[in-house]
Design the sequence.
């Protein structure tokens, strides 16, 4: 995945899920329940708001690192390009 | 030419109505790195649509003209015409036109015709790119977008066939000419496919912004009374009979999609049609994303029970909850379109829905009013 540097000048990072890679393992929701909850089939529903809070950023980074499918990433908040 | 196209206000006719000029600009911004590729998408995965097929069959040179203009303008060294497989007459028509151009001694950007298995999502632009890269015609995750890195890593301009045909007209007659038809927000004309209870089903050309009733009038009008209209195709919106008279066909008023207008006859049941469509779309999932695989299936099953007047307690509430839960969570917009259809049916036919929930049998469930969804076959590519 081509992810931009989350610490670039675009502002606070946010979580981004690649649903094609995600298998619903569910670690992420245990690590940051504040940002990720699971749907009725165990797949994560990820909050897309920019993460201002340092503690949430740390937890989000841990969720990214722990995902065995490498489906989660922290990206710059601004990514609104069209097709 | 890119500036002319931007001024024309042409928007993509494949369903997304994305500004064409912005796509050209994005591709040409990346050609310094590698030459671009133009893909004309005539795969037409929408079962109720026949416009791209019709256009390619009857005006193949217009599409090829547009593809050449696009290729020259964005700096492409190749053109691919992308078709889905049950289209032999189309392939023949295109090859004949290509031969005619060669015989006329025109030197042009080389054109290749590629066919893919018919799949609802096979025409999604990232699915097109994956297929042309040798993979399955399943949507991919963006970024990178096709305009940045598409087929073979080249900046790739994927346009619907009707959009490309329009670029040929803009190149020939100019942006002011193009803007003379349609609305300020969506200039030009649009091809619409009318099906269901109209006297003369088929493909018609309308100005964008034409009232829905006038479009139905082009097809000879409704045969009898109408129970509702599906605007925009399987990923579209159900319009209640009372609202039909007020609707104008612009993408800024309704999800016009690829211009499908499915007219339900008086005894038709929009809920049943919507359930059948949701079932088809669930089967047509690329099977890649959990929310789509499980969510669409669950929504379709509950809708099928509601349509059969055999709902479980809580089915309607579950459909509503799942609709909110699943929307926006696929890698592509396939689940969103299916859910949009279902939710709009529930909104458009509340009285009829109440009868279904009370277990009253409905003729519309047994006898479909729109052409039925095709059978889903296994396998990709």
Sequence:
């Amino acid at each position: 995945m081509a992810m931009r540097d989350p610490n670039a000048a675009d502002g606070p990072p946010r979580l981004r899920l690649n649903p094609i890679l995600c298998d619903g393992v569910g670690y992420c929701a245990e690590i940051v329940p504040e940002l990720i909850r699971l749907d009725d089939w165990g797949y994560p529903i990820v909050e897309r708001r920019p993460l201002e809070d340092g503690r949430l950023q740390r937890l989000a980074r841990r969720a990214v690192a722990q995902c065995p499918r490498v489906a989660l990433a922290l990206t710059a908040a601004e990514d609104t390009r069209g097709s | 030419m890119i500036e002319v196209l931007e001024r024309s206000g042409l928007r993509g006719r494949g369903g997304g109505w994305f500004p064409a000029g912005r796509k050209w600009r994005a591709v040409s911004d990346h050609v310094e790195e590698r030459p671009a590729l133009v893909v004309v998408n005539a795969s037409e995965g929408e079962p109720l649509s026949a416009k791209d097929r019709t256009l390619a069959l009857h005006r193949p040179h217009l599409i090829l003209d547009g593809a050449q203009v696009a290729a020259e303008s964005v700096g492409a060294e190749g053109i691919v015409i992308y078709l889905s497989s049950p289209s032999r007459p189309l392939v023949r028509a295109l090859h004949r036109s290509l031969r005619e151009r060669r015989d006329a001694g025109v030197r042009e950007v080389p054109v290749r015709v590629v066919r893919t298995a018919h799949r609802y999502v096979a025409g999604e632009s990232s699915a097109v790119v994956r297929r042309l890269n040798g993979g399955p015609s399943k949507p991919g995750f963006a970024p990178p977008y096709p305009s940045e890195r598409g087929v073979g890593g080249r900046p790739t301009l994927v346009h619907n066939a009707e959009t490309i045909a329009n670029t040929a007209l803009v190149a020939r007659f100019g942006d002011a000419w193009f803007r003379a038809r349609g609305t300020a927000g969506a200039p030009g004309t649009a091809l619409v496919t009318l099906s269901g209870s109209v006297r003369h089903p088929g493909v018609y050309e309308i100005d964008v912004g034409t009232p829905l009733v006038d479009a139905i009038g082009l097809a000879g009008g409704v045969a009898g009374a109408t129970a509702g209209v599906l605007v925009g195709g399987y990923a579209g919106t159900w319009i209640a009979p009372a609202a039909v008279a007020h609707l104008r066909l612009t993408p800024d008023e309704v999800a016009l999609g690829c211009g499908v207008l499915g007219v339900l006859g008086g005894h038709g049941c929009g809920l049943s049609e919507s359930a059948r469509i949701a079932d088809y779309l669930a089967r047509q999932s690329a099977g890649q994303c959990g929310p789509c695989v499980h969510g669409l299936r669950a929504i379709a099953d509950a809708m099928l029970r509601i349509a059969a007047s055999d709902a479980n307690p809580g089915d309607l509430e579950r459909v509503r909850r799942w609709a909110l839960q699943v929307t926006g969570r696929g890698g592509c917009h396939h689940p969103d379109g299916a859910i949009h259809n279902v939710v709009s049916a529930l909104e458009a036919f509340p009285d009829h829905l109440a009868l279904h929930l009370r277990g009253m049998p409905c003729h519309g469930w047994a006898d479909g009013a729109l052409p039925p969804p095709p059978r889903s076959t296994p396998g990709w590519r």
Remarks:
- Chain B has a mean pLDDT of 95.
